[in-house]
Amino acid sequence: METVTYNGLTFQPYITHETIQRRIAEIGKEIGREYAGKCPLILCVLTGAFPFASDLFRSIGIDAEIAFIRLKSYEGTSTTGNVKQVLGLTENIEGRHVIVVEDIVDTGHTICNLLKDLNAKNPASIKVATLLFKPQSEQCGVVPDYVGFEIPTKFIIGFGLDLDGLARNLRDIYVICDKANDANA
C-alpha cells in the first residue's frame, strides 16, 4: 500500500482490509453468541459506518434486522462537537435489543447524544459496536461494547471514513502523515 493524498493532505497505510475483515468476523461471532434467539436491530450510523455495518451484519450468523440513521459532527478533519441528525430513526425500538454500529468513537459526543435519544424510546437493551475507538480523545465516558481497533488521536480515512466526503471507498484505513516526520523523510 502506498500513501494517498486528499485535499492536499497525505495519508499513509494504517490497517489493511484483511486485518479489518478478520476483526469484523470476530466481533460478528461474539454478537451472534450474545444475541442468539433475540433478533437484534442493527442500527447503522450513516454514512461512515456503512461498510463496517454491512460486513458485520453478514457475519453475525443469526436473524437480525438493520436500520439506518444519519448524524453529522465533523467538518474537515475536526469534530465540531455539534451533532446534527440528518436522517432520523423511523423504526419502533421499544422492547428491542439495539446494537448501534459506528465507524469511529472519537470524543464520544455523537454516540452520547444518540444513546440519550435512543434510551428515551425504551429499548430492551442498547450496545455500541465501533470499528475504531480513540480512548484518549473520549470526553463523555462512553466505552463501546464491541471495539474493532483502539487507535491514537490522529485523523484517519478509508473503509467508510472520509475527508469532506472523499476516501470512504478505500478498502484499507489510512492515517494522516505526521508533518514532523515528513520533514525528516
Notable traits:
HGPRT, Rossmann fold
What's the arrangement of secondary structure elements?
Elements: E1 4-6, E2 9-15, H1 17-34, E3 41-46, H2 50-59, E4 65-75, E5 78-87, E6 97-105, H3 109-119, E7 125-133, E8 146-150, E9 156-157, E10 173-176, H4 179-184
Helix pairs in contact: 1-2
Q: Which strand order spans the largest sheet, edge to edge or round the barrel?
A: 5-4-3-6-7-8
| H-E order | EEHEHEEEHEEEEH
Mean of the pLDDT scores? 89
Low-confidence segments, ≥5 residues, pLDDT <50?
A: 180-185
Cα(first) to Cα(last) distance is 18 Å
Q: Quick one: how many beta strands?
A: 10
Q: What value does the Rg take, in angstroms?
A: 16 Å
Approximate helicity band: 10-25%
- SS element count, helices: 4
Number of domains: 1
CATH architecture: 3-Layer(aba) Sandwich
Give the overall form: globular
CATH class: Alpha Beta
Question: Which secondary-structure class do the elements indicate?
Answer: alpha/beta
Q: Write the CATH fold name.
A: Rossmann fold
Residue share in β-strands: 35-45%
